[in-house]
Fold:
Amino acid sequence: MPKEKILYDPRTETGLAKRVLVSDRPDGFRPASGKLGQKIITLLASGPRYPAEIARSLGAHHQTVYYHIGRLEKAGLITRVRSEHIRGGEAKLYALASDGYAVEFPVKGEPLPTLRSSGRSRALGRFFDEFLHDGEFDGWIVVGSPLQHGSAGTQARDGHYAVQLGFALGQFVNLPEKFPVKLDTDLRAEKLTASNLVVVGGPRNNVIAEALNQHLPFKFSQGGFWSAIVDEGGNSHGAELDCLVEKIQNPWDRSKTCVVIAGLTGGGTKAAIIGVCNHADALFSKYRSGPFAALLRGADRDGDGKVDSVEVLRQL
Structure:
């Protein structure tokens, strides 16, 4: 027998749920698969009806409607609300037994800690799979220090873009007990490089990104103070909003994973973050597992002078 479950669509603004009859076999819903059965179900969706009303509305013979109502009732798809004696006969009022029906396949599914999290991107979850364990975040988000540091003595000004990444990943994990964010200088000083790392910002401002650069498929060019990104064919890309999103094995511990989200400028890093957080379904549509590399270019679609979108230039 079908069981009633709650169906919730996170894309609706109202946040309303529906009660749906669910079965692991479609056979039980067969009475609703015929044309007349579908029409009766659709009509009852607008409110209870008597069979005579249904027959008139559908232009169908009374006996035919009674036959299909009997099958729908036996299948549990509609229910008798009440019966009334009218002119020596019994009139039965029918309504939908539930808000819908569905066939449920025997798949594992995915954990949903909250209803809100059901609106999350599956593609984003797949990409960060190594970082997400039983509702906990396993790794560090690494941002550049705002103090002068590194060989060039630079000050990072793009670390705040990691907040957007935190919101995106927060859909998958519980609130961490300890801060999962580290400055690049602190991560290196505390010898935590052999961990799962999400590195935000390029080698100009982030010493961990600088150390990882030689291992990336798309690399930042040291010439001109990291002024270009070089693809696998040796072509240079030096537009202000050019950026990359890459995933590799951690060179300090190959059982761990490093993700680099960085641009040539602060605006480029913002563009890379937007690509990961706001366009994950498109960016990671074909990704399933393993290494990943995408060269992106930020864009200002609404003309307000701020990057708000990205286009993919190259992808491996």
